[in-house]
Design a protein that fits this description.
The complex is a heterodimer of chains A (285) and B (389). By secondary structure, chain A is mostly helical. Chain A has two domains: 51 residues, no CATH class; 221 residues, MetI-like fold (Orthogonal Bundle). Chain A has 14 helices and no strands. In chain A, α4 packs antiparallel against α11. The longest helix of chain A has 34 residues. Chain A is flat. With 389 residues, chain B is α/β, with parallel strands linked by helices. Chain B is built from 16 helices and eight strands. In chain B, strands 1, 2, 3, 4, 5, 6, 7 and 8 form an eight-stranded mixed sheet that branches. The termini of chain B are far apart. In chain B, 44% of the residues are buried. The N terminus of chain B is likely disordered. The chains are: A mainly alpha (285), B alpha/beta (389). Chains A and B meet through α1, α2, α11, α12 and α13 of A and α1, α3 and α16 of B.
Chain lengths: 285, 389
């Protein structure tokens, strides 16, 4: 019954999750003992099932709610921008082609090879008060915007870091649409817009959903980008979790936040699973 | 059957996806500790664990360890650095777990902010002049603050750094600094207390201004939640400063990030660690024109840094020998020269030129910061109350 991969997943992913969730419910004994020995502001259970004290504390904290809102907002906005940009590049490559389109695709993939820490730092420098953008504006005698240490800066950096994967997925999905179908649509009198929305995008639906879900899951749990480029407050939950875990020595609250992010990421993952089932059904499996 | 296999595949793919996403967003982790076996003939392979900046790594690797090995052939000493102490909580848990199981953690000498906390919990080897002879002459209250297991080995203090070209009348008291910040919006900032001690000292000092002296004194040694309630006025003052801070409330993460803003001229005043400032001027990171001074009433906090030897270490005597060497006059001069750390041993034991530099700032007169646990709560409350609208 228990196949080796299942055991592996259970041992390295499942078991620590169970342990962490038990700790968040106030079970501080057993394997959680060492963590509990040092942590501050713990909620310890005296019921057999646990206590929701830590959840109550975190969920009623206005700062957590604010940061959860920011995290969701950044995830939705960044993922949408990434998808739109990736689709524009993919369609341009598919429908027009040529060296300009290829160059654009290659450029969009470059961030894949740059470590996130370096990318975040350079985004910060680029949009700093003495950065490139404002310097260019200043040449023309204008006052440019400062995006360093703002939520807009976080969105810019997230888009920058997430674009390559989305471009790769969307481009390959759109490329896989057979020429015959596009030609047939054109012969039947469909214009560019109609061909795109009625033929190409539905055909490439699954890769697009995969691009969107992976981008969304990556952004919702990100730490480096908001830590470097974002404001001190509000910030994303990845940064909050690290702060609670190390700086404030409150691991229990940190785990509660992780559970919330896990829940949110699971919702995104549902879309991915649904797309997968749909595609295997279409394949006739 | 087919369905079961497909869902398993999906599950594996999901797990794979999570791993990939995790890797892409995560920065590099600290390397795993390396086991080291003790050598023969009086020597040993020691591992020194550092929680701090790269300047500490250089101090140990380029100055202290070569001098120690030269004086004590047969020893070899390795350094393990946790940059900015990002994994302090994990290191503490590791040492605590090693102690409760009576096992060697692989770390023989610890140089970190949490040493005194662990000493208090009984995880560090108790020290005295009998096992660390060079402690003789170190100010008694500095040794006491080590909670019996921390070996004070250097001091440092937070100072007010400023650009004389823009700050014409240099503030000398905390009230004058606060007035200057409000009069010159956008020209001052500090790092969040969790991300660096220079910001921590600034926040501590402003909070102390509104605390009654007995409560402030208590928070140095005990975790007293009642006394912490007195912080509200100080936090209100810090929040009120917000619009006058750099970019209307930007607090960069890290001591050096703030110092960099001052060096590049984006701000004209900030708080800074004495050692970081002096060595920054030596290396050219901080321009010569930038000056630093201590304020009074109250002064910025500072204190000693502590070494600790885990009780469970199998090479305790060897680690204590290294610690004792760090307190020798030779090593203290190295620390003074390399990172401008204040010596903790009596100044008369040191050469004249070193004495001259540190005449004004002996660690026994430095105002200590809050207790470790109190500091954690201060960081949490600062994040909650100060930044943002």
């Amino acid at each position: 019954m228990a196949s080796p991969p299942l055991l592996l997943v259970a041992a390295f992913t499942g078991f620590p999750i169970v342990l962490a969730v038990a700790y968040s419910l106030g079970h501080t004994g057993g394997l959680n003992q060492t963590t509990a020995l040092i942590a501050q502001h713990q909620h310890i259970t005296d019921e057999w099932w646990g206590t929701l004290g830590a959840y109550r504390e975190v969920l009623t904290n206005p700062r957590f709610r604010r940061d959860l809102g920011v995290t969701v907002m950044v995830t939705v906005v960044s993922t949408s921008i990434v998808l739109v940009l990736a689709l524009i590049i993919a369609l341009y490559l598919r429908l027009t082609g040529g060296w300009a389109a290829k160059l654009l695709t290659v450029l969009a993939i470059v961030p894949q090879f740059i470590p996130v820490v370096i990318a975040s730092w350079s985004v910060l420098m680029f949009y700093a008060p003495d950065g490139f953008l404002r310097s260019v504006f200043a040449q023309a005698g204008l006052e440019g915007p400062t995006f360093g240490y703002t939520v807009s800066g976080v969105v810019i950096a997230q888009v920058w870091c997430s674009l390559p994967f989305a471009v790769l997925m969307c481009a390959s999905g759109v490329q896989a649409v057979p020429d015959a179908l596009i030609d047939a649509a054109r012969d039947a009198g469909a214009g560019l817009v109609r061909t795109t929305f009625s033929v190409i995008l539905p055909m490439a639906f699954v890769p697009i959903v995969i691009a969107a879900t992976f981008t969304g899951i990556g952004i919702i749990g990100s730490f480096t980008v908001p830590y470097f480029t974002g404001p001190n407050a509000p910030t994303m939950l990845g940064v909050d979790m690290a702060n609670y875990f190390t700086a404030y020595n409150m691991p229990q609250q940190s785990i509660v936040m992780a559970v919330v992010v896990f829940g949110a990421a699971s919702l995104i993952a549902l879309a991915y699973i649904w797309a997968n089932f749909r595609s295997s059904k279409e394949a006739g499996a | 059957m087919a369905l079961a296999r497909r869902s398993l595949l999906t599950l594996t793919a999901l797990a794979g996806a999570a791993t990939v996403a995790g890797c892409a967003k995560k920065s590099t982790d600290a390397t795993a500790p390396q086991g080291s076996a003790s050598g023969s003939s009086g020597g040993a392979n020691l591992t020194v664990f550092l929680s701090g900046d790269t300047n500490m790594q250089e101090l140990w690797e380029k100055a202290l360890i070569p001098a120690f090995v030269k004086a004590n052939p047969g020893y070899s000493v390795k350094v393990q650095l946790d940059l900015h102490g990002e994994h302090d909580a994990q290191t503490k848990a590791k040492l605590t777990a090693a102690q409760s199981q009576g096992k060697d953690s692989g770390l023989d000498l610890i140089d970190a902010g949490f040493v005194t906390g662990l000493a208090e919990a009984g995880i560090m080897e108790p020290i005295s002049t009998s096992n660390v002879p060079n402690l003789d002459g170190v100010p008694a209250d500095v040794v006491t603050a080590g909670k019996g297991g921390g070996i004070p080995y250097r001091g440092s203090s937070v100072l007010l750094a400023y650009d004389p070209a823009k700050v014409t009348k240099v503030p000398t008291t905390l009230d004058e600094v606060l007035a200057w910040i409000k009069a010159n919006p956008g020209q001052f900032t500090y790092c969040p207390p969790k991300s660096g001690g220079s910001g921590g000292a600034w926040v501590t000092t402003v909070l102390d201004k509104y605390l009654d002296p007995t409560a402030a004194e208590k928070l140095r040694t005990t975790y007293d939640q009642e006394a912490m309630k007195g912080w509200s006025k100080g936090f209100a003052e810090l929040k009120g400063l917000g619009p006058s801070i750099y970019q209307k409330g930007v607090y960069p993460n890290g001591n050096s990030q703030v110092l960099e803003l001052l060096a590049s001229g984006q701000i004209s005043m900030c708080t800074v660690w004495s050692d970081q400032f002096i060595s920054g001027q030596k290396t050219g990171l901080v321009p010569d024109k930038i000056k630093a001074t201590q304020i009074s009433n109250p002064s910025f906090t500072g204190g000693a840094a502590y070494l600790g030897v885990p009780k469970a270490s199998a090479k305790k005597e060897h680690a204590l020998k290294l610690a004792n060497f760090v307190l020798s006059s030779d090593a203290q001069v190295l620390i003074a020269n390399q990172i401008a750390g204040f010596p903790v041993i009596p100044l008369e034991k040191l050469p004249d030129e070193t004495q001259k530099i540190f005449k004004e700032a002996h660690p026994d007169v430095l105002r200590p910061g809050y207790l470790d646990k109190v500091g954690n709560d201060m960081s949490a409350q600062w994040d909650q109350l100060v930044p943002g609208k």
